[in-house]
Amino acid sequence: MMPLRDRDLAALGLGAGVSLVLPMPHWGLAVTLLLPAAVRWRSAPVFAGLVGLILGAINGVVWHESRLPEACLRQEHTVIGRISTLPRWQQLMADQWQVSAELDRVVVVDPGCQGPRRLWIRQYVADNERHKAMQYGATVTGRVKLKPLPSQWNPGSVPDQARSASRSVDASGSLKGDWRIVDEPGLLQRFRLRRLAAWSERAGEGWVILRALVLGDTRGIDRDRWRDFRHLGVVHILVISGLHIGLLAAMCQLILGLPRRFITLHGDRGQSRGIAVAVLVITGVYVVLVGATLPVTRAYLMLVMTQVPTILGWSTRSDRALLLALVAMVVWNPRVLLGASFWLSACATWLLVCGLRGNRGRFGLVALQLQMVVFLTPLTLFWFGEASWLGMATNLLLVPLVTLVMVPLGLIGLVLSEWTPSLAEWLWWLCRITWESLVPALSMVLQYCRSIGVIQSGLSGMGFLMGVLAIGFWAHYPRHAMALLLGAALSAVDVNEASEAVTLTVLDVGQGLALIVQSGDRVLLYDTGDGRPDQLTQADKVLLPYFRHHGINALDTVMISHGDRDHSGGLDVIRQQVPIGRHLGFAGEPCRNGERWRWESVEFLVLNGTGQDELSRNDESCALLISTAEARVLVLGDMSSSKERELVLFWRDALAASHLVVAHHGSRSSTSYALLKWARPDWALISAGFANAFGHPHDEVLARLAQAGQAVVLNTATTGAVAMRLDQGAGVAPVRQRTRWSPYWLTLPE
């Protein structure tokens, strides 16, 4: 049997990746019928691709059939598992906290609910019971109410289910009662906790950054500071990831290999083996210290595969060993392709392996850094929607300081802290001074980034593919790689030119509401979805990526129906990030009943209230009627049935609408027969969270919609975002993000 060539390995991985687009993974098993034909054609790549598709389909079938059954959701079960991530604390009220972390190695003590292996767990504790909260590294058991994972899907952003599937997180849950510790944290976990506790008591950004770099604890970096780092293009440096592991390994290899440049030694192969072993040991210690999370562990395994040929004395090229490792990961679990961490880790490690071989001499490290920044920019644009123009210069400054100074000094300090605390404190002081001395320069660069230094553009799937191929070709076909990179760059140029079309999109913001109306280059935003000041809001998660994806740089009008958090929680973020022309409703100008304005072919009519009440009364929601010659959309906020009847008495025929955005997420107290009699919608659009705790939309509301007419009901909880052209007529079906032909990993529990 002939050995597999690089193209055969690539075809095997590609076939496994293609299985992710199947609506039902069982269909992929049908390609077994084509295997004899591939053998007859004597086409090894085709045969390998078909085998990869079959293996990926088998993996998908196993995953699909072993998911948490619907009967187990929203039920309490006894679970056993290990708390594998550092718990995150969020203060809900003055005396109450929410603590969240991942629970792995999960066993559900219920024969009928054996699906989940990794859970995202929340626990609520009072201020005087903080000692009862989950503890990192401990194996615990308790009663947990299992819930489905978030399932939001919007244009311009990665579906929630893709993130969950790539991280092997199966479900979420809330602890009922207290944890009972089955096994205490291990030695290394206790050491990490002890050091984090000591560093957390010390003020200053230097200590926060030191915790992030050395111990993988980013909890001290707030949302605004994360945004600054993202604009600077240095997030990958501060988050322990595959890029970080790869850079650390590269620096270790370069430093350990320096004597070979000046001294000729006998037994060069033995020395190379020693360097490879030392690199694996140093990076392995670092992986353990930062908690051995899934992305970090995956990156370390890739690094191991690149060093194994050297250690064993094989003649296999390091890039081929890495390719074999990547293909094995994809074939074993194709869903790793759904996460940004895999692509960034894989591509960064590939560039490092190829770059260390080709970049020698005095400026080799600088050239390697330039390659990393340039080639990873398309991937960053695809996954995050933005990249920094000044990221190259910033990375040239920070990467050497972080990898050659701060991380080594921090790790050496950790090793010495148990024996010589004073020396360790001095080393950590050097780390902090190094970072804090950079803060003024970073602040100056940040001012330029905020104005001209940030690329905000979505990248198409084709652009992403060209970017990945450019990285793969760089080692052997540099001219082809540069051409592909240029193509990816051109695809990142904003091509979303303003058109005369009038579009309305009800975004999937979970249990909340946010919709966008676009007419030419004018944009109206109605509500912003949920959010808290100290955490990621729906504006960060959904609205801003949507704006970047569609080239929206400013909002002509923002209308906030009322002050409830699920409608106004992202307002502060929007006001900080996007210029606003006019602000109506809550925290803005009062909504005036009967006010009209027109944008070319679309007219807006305010139907109710002021929307300014700090008490956020639902009946004061600013209602809006959006009209074109072909369609009318009625948006009612959180109005109750009694308020709807008042609207009917005042407006009557004016309430006729082809599309109704159902009030209050489908609450039983809204969407009365009186309103439906006059509205007579063809389409009823509901914005609600999947499996929400309120039971929205209520069965009575669905029954009223069914009895009142032939309205087609669309719920963002199951369809994802819903978009429609208002200038094409009411009979044109809205475009849904999720359909029955969506990939199998995007299906919802039945």
What does this structure look like?
This protein has a seven-stranded mixed β-sheet with strand order 13-12-11-10-9-21-22, covered by helices on one side. A seven-stranded mixed β-sheet has the order 14-15-16-17-18-19-20. It has a five-stranded mixed beta barrel with strand order 1-3-4-6-5. It folds into four domains: 6-65, no CATH class; 70-185, OB fold (Dihydrolipoamide Acetyltransferase, E2P) (Beta Barrel), CATH 2.40.50; 197-369 and 394-445, no CATH class; 502-730, Ribonuclease Z/Hydroxyacylglutathione hydrolase-like (Metallo-beta-lactamase, Chain A, 4-Layer Sandwich). The model has no long low-confidence stretch (mean pLDDT 83). The protein is built from 26 helices and 22 strands. It has 750 residues and is an alpha+beta fold. It is globular, with a radius of gyration of 28 Å.
Number of domains: 4
Question: Percentage of helical residues?
Answer: 40-55%
Q: In which order are the strands of the major sheet placed?
A: 13-12-11-10-9-21-22
Count of alpha and pi helical runs: 26
The SS-based structural class is alpha+beta
N- to C-terminal separation? 46 Å
* Quaternary status: single chain
CATH architecture of the largest domain: 4-Layer Sandwich
Stretches where pLDDT is under 50 for at least 5 consecutive residues are none
